[in-house]
C-alpha cells in the first residue's frame, strides 16, 4: 500500500536526520563551544581527574565537608533517590539515625542538623549542600584539620554560590570543590 | 515560601504567557503552509524529505486516510525501537558493553516512546547503549511529539473548514513540525543546556578515584541532544535514571527554569495557533486562560501541602528526594508542570512528595492531561471537554449544540465520550487488577496506602501518556511491562482515532451563521462552565481511588501515624 511505502522511507530518512545527524551536530557544536561542560565538568588536580563538579562523592572523614545522604551510596550506576514515603517508618528510622550521627559528630551545641543533611537527594549525587549545612560543619572540619575556623570560612566564602543570576534556585555550596580547595590550604 | 520563591513562580507564568503568541503564530504559519523566516534555511530540507519519501505535499487526506497513515507510521516506530534494543549488544556505540534488552522491557519502552509517554521501567545509564538512546529513542522523542501536534492541527482544520472532505496531509504535518519547529528549537536548546553542564559526548563512562580513595564510575553520553527534545516534545524520558534530577540532565537552577518553560511552550502556543487557524483568537486565549487557572490553582494547593508540617518527622518542606540547587518550591513547581503537561520528566522524586502533593500530581494526569497537556495531545484533549461543555450547555437551554458554527450531534458526542472514558477505564481497571494480582503486588516498595498509590500512579501515568512514576515500584517485570504497554496504547490511540473522526465529521459540516441564541465560547461564563465540566468528570471518576491512596496517607500522617 502507498502509505506503508511512504512511511518506511520517511521513517528511515528521519532516523538518519534526527537520530544520527542531529545528535552529531549537537556533539560537534558542544565540543567546540562548551568543551568542559560537554565532557562532564571534570575537576583535575595535577593532571589527574578526581571527579566531576556536578557529581557528589562520598565524604566521611571529619576533615572534609559531608554531602547530602545518598540512596545509592554515591555510586551513580544507576542514579536514584530513596522513593520513600515521607509518612513511612523506614524514612523516620533513617532520619533518626542520621540525626544521631550528625549530633554525635558536631555536638549538640551546634544545634539541630540542617534538613538537607537528614534527607537523601533525588539523584543520589546532589553535588551541593545548603549554606546552613555548610555552616553547621565548619567547626568540625576546622578542628579535625587543626586550623582556625576563619580559615575554613574563607574557603567556604570562595566556593559558595548565590542564586543563579540573583534569582533562580537556591544559594548552594559545592562539596567537592570545597573539599578540594581545603586540601590546598591545609592537610587533613 | 519566601519572596524569591514567589518571584520565580511569577516569572515562570509570565514567561509562558509571553511565549504563547510568539510560538503560536509561528506554528500557525508553518501549518498553514505560509513562508516563515526559517524557510530560507530549512525549505530545502523540507523538499528533500518529500522527494526521498515520495510524498506529494499537495495531496489532502480524509480522516480515515490520515488515521491509517498515522497508525502505520507509529507501528513502524514500535517495531524499530524494539528491534534496536534487542540487538544493541551487536551494534556500535556501546562503550559500556550493555547487553540486549529483554523482550518485555523492549516492548514496553518502544510503546512508551512512540506514544509520547516515556514511562521507563529501565534505568537509562545501565540499560541503553548510546546507539539505542540516539537512533531509537531520540528519534521517537521527535516523532511522537510531531504526531501529537499533527493530530491537533488536523482537528483545528476540521473545525475551521467548511463542507470539506479532508483534514490535511499527515506526512506534511509531521515533516513541517519536525523540520521547522522541533529540530531548530532542540538544536538551540541542547546547546544552551550543554553550556549549563548537560553532557554531550560519545566518551565512555569516566572512572575516577575519589578524594577519599574510593572508585566511582560516572556515566556520560550524548544526553543534551535528547534532553532538549524530551522537554520541548513533552516526552520526559530521562537519559539517566534520575531524569531531570540528575545533575548531568539538569545541572543548574537556570537549566531547570528553561526546562519547565520548554515543557509548556508548544502546548501553550497551540491554543494561540488554534485561535489563528480557526479565526477565533479570543476563544484561543480563553482556552489558555482555563488551563492556567487550573494550573495555578492545583500548583498552589500542592505548594501548601508541601510546606505544611509533617507531624511524623516534626518538620515541613522536606528535602527528601529533592535537589539542593532547586529547593522545595522549584521541585513542587516542576512536579506540577510535568504532570500537567504530560511530560513526565521529574526533578524530584514524586514518591517522596508530601501525600497530597503526590495526589495532586496524579490528579493533574487524571484530568486527562489537558492543563497545557502533551504537545498536541493537550490541545485535542481539551477539545474533548470543550465539546462536552458545549453539548451540556446546549442541552440545558434546549438547543442543538453548536461549536464554531457547526452542529455537534450524536456521532461527535459518542466519539468524544469514547475518548474520555477509554483512559479513565484503563486507569481504574488496570489498578484494580494489579492491586489483587500477586504479580502486581510483588513490585511494591511500600506498605499501606503508599503502596496502593504506587500502583495507581503507574497506571495513571501510563494511560495519561505522562511517564513519571512513584519510582519505588519495581515495574520492569513481564506483568507491569505488558499491562502498562496496553494502558499506554489505549491512552494514546483510543483518543487519537476518535479525535480524527470528529475532525473529519466537523470538516464536512456546513456552517450556520451565529444567531442571538448561539452559545458564545469566548466569554468567562464559558470558561467557568468548562472548568466545572473538567473537574466534575475528573473528580467524580477518580475521587474514590485517590481516597484509598494519597488521601488516607495524608490523614494518617497528620495524626502522626507512620506505616
Nutshell version of this structure?
Chain A has 188 residues and is mainly α. Chain A is built from 6 helices and 4 strands, in the order H-H-E-E-H-E-H-H-E-H. The termini of chain A are far apart.
Description:
The complex is a heterodimer of chains A (188) and B (563). With 188 residues, chain A is mostly helical. Chain A has one domain. Helices cover 48% and strands 7% of the residues of chain A. The radius of gyration of chain A is 22 Å and the shape is extended. Chain A starts with a helix and ends with a helix. By secondary structure, chain B is an all-alpha fold. Chain B has a two-stranded antiparallel sheet. In chain B, α13 packs across α18. Helices cover 64% and strands 3% of the residues of chain B. The longest helix of chain B is centred in the C-terminal third of the chain and has 35 residues, at 524-558. The chains are: A mainly alpha (188), B mainly alpha (563). The interface between A and B is large, with 92 and 118 residues.
Biggest sheet features of chain B:
2 strands, antiparallel
Compute the number of strand runs of chain A.
4
| Portion of residues within helices of chain B | 55-70%
Total number of beta strands of chain B: 6
Can you give the helix content of chain A as a percent range? 40-55%
Strand order of the largest sheet of chain B: 1-2
Instruction: Give the number of helices of chain B.
Output: 18
Derived structural class of chain A: mainly alpha
Over all CA atoms, what is the radius of gyration of chain B?
23 Å
Strand order of the largest sheet of chain A: 1-2
How many angstroms separate the termini of chain B? 29 Å
How would you state the average pLDDT of chain B, rounded?
Answer: 96
Average pLDDT across residues of chain A?
A: 96
Poorly predicted ranges of chain A: none
Count of discrete structural domains of chain B: 2
Strand content of chain A: 5-15%
Q: Which shape of chain B, going by the Cα principal axes?
A: globular
